[in-house]
Amino acid sequence: MPDKQQRALEHYIGVGSYPTYKIVAPNGNLLPTEAPRPDHPEAIRNMIEKLKNNK
Question: Which residues contact 35 (CB under 8 A, 6 or more apart)?
């Protein structure tokens, strides 16, 4: 991907550093917050539960 497209995509999805983890909602939307690292499954579960309760 050309640099200009890469920067545009990073800006669009809110990537400020690498690695960046995001949660994608069932409807395909990216949630506006960064997700915990994959090696922290309990933190991921807690975040998902919190998001479900905020509906």
Answer: 21, 22, 23, 44, 47
Distance, CA of 6 to CA of 12 (rounded, Å): 10
Which residue, chain included where needed, has tokens 């800006």?
Answer: 11
H or E segment and range at residue 44: helix 41-53
End-to-end CA distance of the chain: 36
Q: What is the pLDDT of residues 1-48, one digit of tens each?
A: 899 999 999 898 888 788 888 888 888 888 877 889 999 999 999 988
Mark 2-38 as b/e (b = at least 16 C-beta within 10 Å). Answer: eeeeeeeeeeeeeeeeeeeeebeeeeeeeeeebbbee
